[in-house]
Every structure is written in structure tokens, then in C-alpha cells.
Amino acid sequence: MICPNCRREIAEYSNFCSSCGARQAEVAAARPTGPKRLMRSSTDSKIGGVCGGLAEYFNADPGVVRILVTLITIASGFVFGILSYVVAWLILPLSPTPFSSASHTTVSAGPAMPSH
Ligand SMILES: [Zn+2]
């Protein structure tokens, strides 16, 4: 890839230019037509949004995904499922929250919340 600041060839997927130190644009944002990214859902989230993110990725019903995840967790003796969930929670990036549905997932820090 080419640094847009100094026009020099730098390593692929670099966050910063090795020649001038300029911050590079997000790789995902630069390739909007690339493969779908598996992300935790910020809008459809019961625990960590992993099930909602899986549902979005596979274009499936989040409820069905949760049932499947729960069944797999129970069938595997809990440890495998819980570990998988925690690992997914830690690894997967949180998808950007759309403005329209942000209100019910965000922590109540807004001035619009009643104080009593
Ligand atoms: Zn540069």
C-alpha cells in the first residue's frame, strides 16, 4: 500500500506510515466492497452482542442463534461454549452503533434522562 501523506510504499495493513509516521486510514473503510466482517452487534446485544453479531453475519434470526449457542454450550458441558463466547467477546470488534437505535444501548449519560 502507498502512504497518502508521503506517497511511499509501506507495509500492507500498517496503522502508521514507516516513513513519515502518518496515521493510515482504516483498511476496512478503504475497502467497502470487501468481505463481510464478523463483529459483535452493538444494537442486538443481550450479554456481549456475540450472538447478535453472528446472526447479522449469517443473516439469521438472533433468537435462533442464541438457542443454538445455548444448546451447544449445554451439550459441550458448558466450558467450551462459555470459553468460545468469552474469546469471541474479546476478539471481535464492536460494530459502530447506528444513530437511530443508539439511545437504548448507551449508558445513561445524556442530559435528556430524568434525574428522579
Ligand atoms: Zn508516509
Word description of this protein:
The chain has 116 residues and is mostly helical. The chain has two domains: 32 residues; 61 residues, no CATH class. Helix content is 34%, strand content 0%. Helix 2 packs across helix 3 and helix 3 packs across helix 4. The longest helix has 14 residues.
Layout of strands and helices, then pairs:
Blueprint: H1 27-30, H2 50-58, H3 62-75, H4 79-91
Bound molecules: zinc ion.
Residues 3, 5-6, 8, 17, 19-20, 22 line the site of zinc ion (ZN).
Would you count the extended β strands for me? 0
DSSP strand (E) fraction?
Answer: under 5%
* Residues in helices, as a percent range: 25-40%
Task: Estimate nothing, just give the exact number of structural domains.
Answer: 2
* SS class: mainly alpha
How would you concisely characterize the structure shown here?
With 116 residues, the protein is mainly alpha-helical. Helix content is 34%, strand content 0%. Helix 2 packs across helix 3 and helix 3 packs across helix 4.
Task: Name the features.
single chain; 116 residues; mainly alpha; elongated; binds zinc ion
